[in-house]
Write a structure and sequence with these properties.
Distance between the termini: 39 Å
Strand content: under 5%
Number of strands: 0
Helix content: over 70%
Oligomer: single chain
Length: about 300
Amino acid sequence: MDETNVRVNSLKAWILAARPKTLTGAAVPVMIGIACAVAMYGWCGIRVVPAVLCMLFALIMQVDANFVNDYFDCVRGKDDRETRLGPKRACTEGWVTLPAMRRCLVVTTALACLVGLPLVCFGGWEMVLVGAACVLFCFLYTTLLAQHGMGDVLVLLFFGLVPVCLTYYVTLPPASQTITAQVVWASLACGLVIDTLLVVNNYRDYDQDRAVGKKTLIVRMGRERAEQLYGWLGNIATYMMWGCLVLGDSSFVLMLVCFACFVPYALLHGATRVQMRRIGRGRELNKVLGMTARNMFVFGVTTAIVTLFIL
């Protein structure tokens, strides 16, 4: 979307603040969880309402997390218009006023809770604790944990294990609700792939984060190892999905077919890593961010399709 001539607090401003491109990271885990449930019990054997609620909750929470990040980074002076390498932020650019963003944070957080609350009917009162944890860490990520290198752990939990496993769980019929080893395996693979996006983001901001004492995982390990980490995350996730089929006792032929299905993702991931190394520093790394988001979507769709037919 064109970022010129953005009126203050306009619809265009709010769309830019919501960062639509990041919604892939919220949708992919839920999509994989639903695919695992359908693979086990068929389209007629799963519950559609909790599947829809999980998707809506994930998307709203992602927007909420983006608003939280936008607001608190602006308030604490973390976003400088001149030195910022990443995409522009709504509050810092003046597209959205701080009072308006505060009000919207209340609305989006409340809306997420309202959408997620009915999941109690499908997964028990434990869902309240899960929802509360999602909201709590949505705020803690920007305000505290990201400063101490905990971002990657949170991605693995809240973009891998939690959404995939719990979507699978609440979508199943009541008498069949359980979480299998294959689903856990798939959720971990999903978390690793989505973490590649955070790795690129922190790799781009390495110099700035190091200068202000922000101890991200990338700052701790250094740029060269960060490039290696990016490559390994995608590769390990691909092998984990193949291992997921081994756990499912698939035939040798089907395992070969599955492995072949992930070749496009592996090639795209490898090409993106080459671009990451070539660019090295600067705003041009935002292209790698976009390529990584595309790769995540390809992985998610591939995993969902392969899961439906093979798992």
